[in-house]
């Protein structure tokens, strides 16, 4: 994903900026709000593996174009119409929950207290067809307090548990 930033400049928004600006604008404007830093990924909770999504949306750039995280608008689906829980399947695995926290708007207060504007949940990829990828992919899901189906997600590689390289060059080196 080429963003056109000068060398050394990174897109690294804070949690409250993702919720208060990007997710809020998406809720108000719908699909007409298309920032070049957040992609639409209709299959984010679908049949594609996280590493496939990563490559499709530009995360697989070379070292000179290193991407730390990809940002997506996605729609969650409930496990069934009456369920309170959401389906977080991805490819052959699932997003397994690690933690969650409230997101506060730092500029708005009510009686001296910050206002909760959303929730941030952290997940890791587990149970997929290739055990090397288990735990190697991390996802954060941001939800506004008043809208629980449209979310903003970040996708990252877990630097502590990177899968082995799958390039032909890496395989040749490994065989020697």
Automatic annotation (TrEMBL):
PANTHER family: NAC DOMAIN-CONTAINING PROTEIN 82-RELATED. It is found in: Nucleus. Its main location: nucleus. It comes from Rubus argutus. It comes from the Eukaryota. PROSITE patterns: NAC (PS51005). This is NAC domain-containing protein. Keywords: DNA-binding, Nucleus, Transcription, Transcription regulation. Residues 5-161 form the NAC domain. GO terms for molecular function: DNA binding. One of its GO terms (cellular component) is nucleus. SUPFAM superfamilies: NAC domain. Gene3D superfamilies: NAC domain. InterPro entries: NAC-dom (IPR003441), NAC_dom_sf (IPR036093). GO terms for biological process: regulation of DNA-templated transcription.
């Amino acid at each position: 994903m080429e963003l056109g930033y000068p060398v050394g400049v990174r897109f690294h928004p804070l949690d409250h900026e993702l919720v208060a600006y990007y997710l809020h604008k998406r809720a108000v404007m719908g699909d007409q709000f298309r920032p070049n830093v957040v992609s639409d990924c209709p299959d984010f909770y679908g049949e594609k593996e996280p590493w496939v999504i990563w490559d499709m949306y530009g995360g697989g750039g070379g070292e000179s174009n290193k991407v730390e995280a990809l940002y997506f608008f996605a729609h969650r689906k409930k496990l069934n119409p009456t369920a309170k829980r959401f389906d977080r399947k991805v490819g052959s695995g699932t997003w397994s929950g690690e933690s969650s926290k409230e997101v506060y708007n730092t500029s708005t207060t009510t009686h001296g207290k910050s206002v909760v504007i959303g929730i941030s949940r952290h997940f890791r990829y587990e149970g997929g067809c290739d055990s090397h990828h288990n735990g190697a992919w991390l996802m954060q899901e941001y939800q506004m307090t008043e809208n629980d189906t449209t979310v903003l997600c970040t996708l990252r590689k877990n630097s502590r548990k990177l899968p082995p390289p799958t390039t032909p060059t890496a395989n040749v080196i490994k065989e020697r």
